[in-house]
Specification:
The protein has one domain (9-327): Aldolase class I (TIM Barrel). The protein has 14 helices and 12 strands. The protein has helices at 39-50, 82-94, 112-115, 135-155, 169-174, 189-192, 194-207, 226-239, 266-270, 289-297, 307-311, 315-321, 334-339, 344-350, and strands at 9-10, 16-17, 21-23, 55-62, 98-104, 119-121, 130-132, 159-163, 212-217, 244-248, 279-283, 302-305.
Length: 360
């Protein structure tokens, strides 16, 4: 039967999602420097829940202070941050939207000017001026991811997503280009992926089977190989600790770099996996109503929406009402973005996206 964007989904943990739209975890730099939730970030996220997103995911939220990846990042590394999260979760859930926080550590991508100390990585990295984590620190990192998930559960979140994509700390362990360790966390793919699997298993055990658990991976860039990410993805599915896999493809419809002789798109490469009872979501240039349907028809369970969710807080409602919906063209005015719930800080950040914000 053809999947419709308006269809509800039930995850293996029992949590239901009212439609097939997830707000992608988007960097917005709107919260306070100490990791506390700001009114601006609260307004931005809750407006998307009101706009009909079946699942609203926070920006990447760091599990250690040294893992902060950008100014104004929402944190989940300490108990004194809980009250802000409780307020956010309550409002998201009041809109019948699933509330999920993305657990993150930037590793070598933590800027010195943000963390005021040398960044950490799987290995020493001169280019990023980062030092290798000791074995004891790797164990602590694993524990802090698990503790952040427990903290998120106390806040009332329906679940967490472990950020293993985009060149952040777990990617740094996964990548044979970056990870030069000689202990049990380096060398073979089994060793390089060990930390990710230990974190996932630890969260599953600590938070229980009714807590939604997902993992985000990206199969290209930052030293990632599609073949290895497919192997890791299938193992995550087979071990039965996760409810969904979130694959950030950059562009769903482009050819896979690893298989230049293949006519298959990157999307077709990842939908080859045997997902069993694990749901799949993907991100990557899913801009229009037609794109949404195309991705669902390819075998994806729900779509992760970034750019179009910034432009239209009610993108899900618009696509459900009109399957041929096309978002407003860029550049858009500052006034337009403010009306869509973006603060001055977020709008300034969006100027990094070429041609997104009008100069007026």
């Amino acid at each position: 039967m053809k999947k419709k964007p308006s269809d509800s989904i039930e995850f293996s943990c029992g949590i239901k999602m009212k439609n097939r739209f997830m707000l992608a975890p988007l960097t917005n730099q709107q919260s306070h420097e100490n990791g506390q939730l700001s009114d601006d970030e609260y307004n931005w996220l809750t407006m998307r829940a009101q706009g009909g997103f079946g699942l609203v995911m926070t920006c990447a939220s760091h599990v250690q202070e040294i893992g902060k990846g950008f100014p104004g990042q929402l944190g989940i590394f300490a108990d004194d941050l809980i009250d802000g999260h409780k307020k956010l979760v309550s409002k998201i859930k009041s809109q019948n939207s699933v509330a999920v926080i993305q657990l993150h550590h930037a590793g070598m991508r933590s800027p010195f000017e943000v963390i005021k100390q040398k960044a950490v990585c799987a290995s020493d990295n001169e280019k990023h001026h980062a030092r290798a984590l000791t074995l004891e620190e790797v164990k602590q990192l694993k524990e802090d991811f698990i503790q952040a998930a427990i903290r998120a559960q106390k806040c009332g979140y329906d679940g967490v997503e472990v950020h293993g994509a985009h060149g952040y700390i777990l990617t740094q362990f996964l990548s044979s280009d970056i990870n030069k360790r000689t202990d049990e966390y380096g060398g073979s793919l089994k060793n390089r992926s060990r930390l990710l699997f230990e974190i996932v298993e630890g969260i599953s055990k600590a938070c229980g089977k009714t807590f939604l658990l997902g993992v985000r991976l990206s199969p290209e860039r930052f030293g990632m190989k599609l073949s290895e990410i497919k192997t890791v993805s299938q193992q995550l599915i087979d071990e039965n600790h996760i409810d969904f896999l979130d694959l950030s493809l950059w562009d769903c419809f482009k050819p896979a770099e690893d298989y230049s002789d293949s006519k298959k798109t990157l999307l077709e490469q990842v939908t080859d996996l045997n997902f069993k009872n694990v749901k799949l979501t993907v991100a990557g240039k899913i801009r229009t109503g037609e794109d949404v349907q195309k991705v669902l028809d390819a075998g994806v369970d729900f779509v992760s929406i970034g750019r179009s969710g910034i432009l239209h807080h009610d993108f899900p409602k618009r696509v459900i009402d009109n399957p041929n919906f096309i978002p407003i063209e860029n550049p858009v005015s500052v006034a337009y973005l403010k009306n869509e719930g973006l603060s001055d800080i977020f709008i300034d950040y969006m100027r990094r996206w070429e041609g997104f914000v009008a100069d007026n």
